[in-house]
Specification:
It holds the Pfam family GST_C. GO terms for molecular function: transferase activity. Keywords: Transferase. This is Glutathione S-transferase. With 242 residues, the chain is an alpha+beta fold. The protein has 2 domains: 106 residues, Glutaredoxin, CATH 3.40.30; 120 residues, Glutathione S-transferase Yfyf (Class Pi), Chain A, domain 2 (Up-down Bundle), CATH 1.20.1050. Helices cover 53% and strands 8% of the residues. The protein has a 4-stranded mixed β-sheet with strand order 2-1-3-4, with helices on one face. The termini are close together.
C-alpha cells in the first residue's frame, strides 16, 4: 500500500482535528496518508464494512497498515490524536516526555471530548430544530458559556497566577494534541448564537487570543481547508476490499 495511514473521514469538526495533526506531522516528519471521504448523506458510515471498523458508525476512522499487511483500526477522534502522537511523533513535538505534562494533555483532551456533545446539542437547539425551543437553546448556551469559562480561566491564569498560550505543558504551555482536539470546536462559537463583540470578547479574551494563535498556523489552515479535502477521492469499494 502506498500510504500506510488511511483516513476515513468527512469535512466535519471531528474530522478536521485529525486532518490538522496529519498536516502538522507532514511538516515535521514528511509522513503521507490517503484520505477517503465517507458519504454521510447516504449513511455510508452505517454500512457493514464501516461498522467493522467503528461499531459506533461515526467518522473519523484511522487505519494504520503495517508492512506485513496487518491493520490497526482506531476510532474516536481523541483516540486517533493520541495514537498518532504516540506512534508517529517520536520527538514529542506535539506531545510530552514527562508523565505530568502528558497527563495534562490527556486531561484537557478528555475535557473537551466530554464537552463536545454539549456543543452539538447547543447548535441543534439554536439553529437545527424545525420549531423554536427557547428554553433548550438557553439551557445549552449557558452550558457552553460555562465550558468557555473553564478554558478562559485556565488560559488567563486565574487560578495558577500566570497566563498561558496553550492548554497543556509547564509554564505557558506547548502546542499539542490537547489544543488540536479542542480548537476546531471552540472556534465555531458563532454557529451557537454567540457574537464576538457582545458575548465572547468581554468575557473570554484569552480564549479568543488562543483561537487566533492556532488559526495562524499553516498546517491548521490546510487541515480545515474544505476544498482540499472535498477534492479527495472517495474509494469506498477499494477500502472495503482492503
Amino acid at each position: 500500500m502506498e500510504h500506510p495511514l488511511q483516513l476515513l473521514t468527512e469535512n466535519t469538526t471531528n474530522g478536521k482535528k485529525v486532518q490538522i495533526l496529519l498536516e502538522e506531522l507532514q511538516d515535521i516528519y514528511g509522513i503521507s496518508w490517503a484520505t477517503h471521504l465517507i458519504d454521510l448523506e447516504t449513511d455510508e458510515q452505517k454500512k457493514r464494512w464501516f461498522l467493522r471498523l467503528n461499531p459506533n458508525g461515526r467518522i473519523p476512522v484511522l487505519l494504520d497498515v503495517a508492512e506485513d499487511g496487518s491493520v490497526i483500526s482506531i476510532f474516536e477522534s481523541s483516540a486517533i490524536l493520541t495514537y498518532l502522537q504516540e506512534h508517529h511523533d517520536p520527538r514529542n513535538v506535539f506531545g510530552f516526555g514527562s508523565a505530568s505534562e502528558r497527563s495534562q494533555a490527556l486531561q484537557w483532551l478528555f475535557f473537551w471530548h466530554s464537552s463536545g456533545p454539549v456543543q452539538g446539542h447547543t447548535r441543534h437547539f439554536v439553529e437545527g430544530v424545525p420549531e423554536p425551543a427557547p428554553y433548550a437553546a438557553r439551557y445549552f448556551q449557558a452550558a457552553m458559556l460555562r465550558i468557555y469559562s473553564v478554558l478562559e480561566a485556565h488560559l488567563s491564569g486565574q487560578h495558577s497566577g500566570h497566563s498561558r498560550q496553550y492548554l497543556a505543558g509547564h509554564g505557558r504551555g506547548k502546542y499539542s494534541i490537547a489544543d488540536m482536539g479542542t480548537w476546531p470546536h471552540v472556534r465555531a462559537y458563532l454557529s451557537l448564537g454567540f457574537s464576538e463583540e457582545g458575548d465572547m470578547r468581554p468575557r473570554f479574551p484569552h480564549l479568543l487570543q488562543w483561537i487566533d494563535r492556532i488559526a495562524a498556523r499553516p498546517p491548521v489552515q490546510r487541515g480545515v481547508d474544505a476544498g482540499k479535502y472535498d477534492s479527495e477521492e472517495n474509494p469506498g469499494l477499494r477500502v472495503r476490499a482492503e
